[in-house]
Amino acid sequence: MAIEAWYMEENSEDQRLPHHRNPQEFVSLSKLEELGVLYWRLNPKNYDNDEELRNIRESRGYNYMDFLDLCPEKTENYEEKLKNFYTEHIHANEEIRYCLEGSGYFDVRDKDDRWIRIWIKEGDMIVLPAGIYHRFTLDTDNYVKLMRLFVGEPVWTPFNRPQEEHPARKSYVMNLMENLMEERFSVALEAH
Ligand SMILES: CSCCC(=O)C(=O)O
Ligand SMILES: [Fe+2]
């Protein structure tokens, strides 16, 4: 099955709940691509010996790799980590995560600053572009095992919002606007 993503209902309910709108408003993969979010569906049982994963890592230069287990029993400073992950932030580099077990939600802002909730499950690999506002939470199953990838020496530093002057933010916003202009331009040409 393809990835599931939807516009969030923002209310004070538990962050681990789905937060669907009423009626539900799903978001397509191509809409996520417009925001610069990349997605692959891989075989999580075979990550040690997966040609597809090897190809992605080689073509995108993801030479660094480690694992992150998140659950109340196993994770040190669990509550604090989860609180930080759910604080809206950007990074200077891509955030690359491959879900090997369990599940969770990545929330990203769309071009109009609305939250899109992306449900990551076993086999889902996602890349968030540098400079996109995002956050992460476990869902009500309270467990995820993620592979983290990076180009070179990893830097996990979050820059909490607002970050409009951060170079990564500026270039992200610029790219996004260029993409939107191109899209409108080609729609206008087609209409002629
Ligand atoms: C648990 S991985 C995702 C959380 C996050 O946004 C981060 O690590 O920067
Ligand atoms: Fe992040």
UniProtKB/TrEMBL annotation:
GO biological process: L-methionine salvage from methylthioadenosine
Any one GO CC term of the record: cytoplasm
GO molecular-function term, one example from the UniProt record: acireductone dioxygenase [iron(II)-requiring] activity
Membrane topology value: Peripheral membrane protein
InterPro entries to which the protein is assigned, alphabetical: ARD, ARD_euk, RmlC-like_jellyroll, RmlC_Cupin_sf
Binding site for Ni(2+): 89, 91, 95, 134
Keyword Chaperone: no
EC id: 1.13.11.54, 1.13.11.53
CC cofactor note: Binds either 1 Fe or Ni cation per monomer. Iron-binding promotes an acireductone dioxygenase reaction producing 2-keto-4-methylthiobutyrate, while nickel-binding promotes an acireductone dioxygenase reaction producing 3-(methylsulfanyl)propanoate.
Chain segments annotated as coiled-coil in the UniProt record: none
Residues reported in the UniProt entry to bind Fe(2+): 89, 91, 95, 134
Catalysed reactions, as listed in the record: 1,2-dihydroxy-5-(methylsulfanyl)pent-1-en-3-one + O2 = 4-methylsulfanyl-2-oxobutanoate + formate + 2 H(+); 1,2-dihydroxy-5-(methylsulfanyl)pent-1-en-3-one + O2 = 3-(methylsulfanyl)propanoate + CO + formate + 2 H(+)
Pathway: Amino-acid biosynthesis; L-methionine biosynthesis via salvage pathway; L-methionine from S-methyl-5-thio-alpha-D-ribose 1-phosphate: step 5/6
UniProt keyword list: Amino-acid biosynthesis, Cytoplasm, Dioxygenase, Iron, Metal-binding, Methionine biosynthesis, Nickel, Nucleus, Oxidoreductase
Classification via PANTHER family: ACIREDUCTONE DIOXYGENASE, ACIREDUCTONE DIOXYGENASE 4
Localization: Cell membrane; Cytoplasm; Nucleus
Cofactor(s) needed by this chain: Fe(2+); Ni(2+)
Domain of life: Eukaryota
Top EC class of this enzyme: oxidoreductase
Major subcellular site: membrane
Protein name: Acireductone dioxygenase
Function field: Catalyzes 2 different reactions between oxygen and the acireductone 1,2-dihydroxy-3-keto-5-methylthiopentene (DHK-MTPene) depending upon the metal bound in the active site. Fe-containing acireductone dioxygenase (Fe-ARD) produces formate and 2-keto-4-methylthiobutyrate (KMTB), the alpha-ketoacid precursor of methionine in the methionine recycle pathway. Ni-containing acireductone dioxygenase (Ni-ARD) produces methylthiopropionate, carbon monoxide and formate, and does not lie on the methionine recycle pathway.
Record family assignment: Belongs to the acireductone dioxygenase (ARD) family.
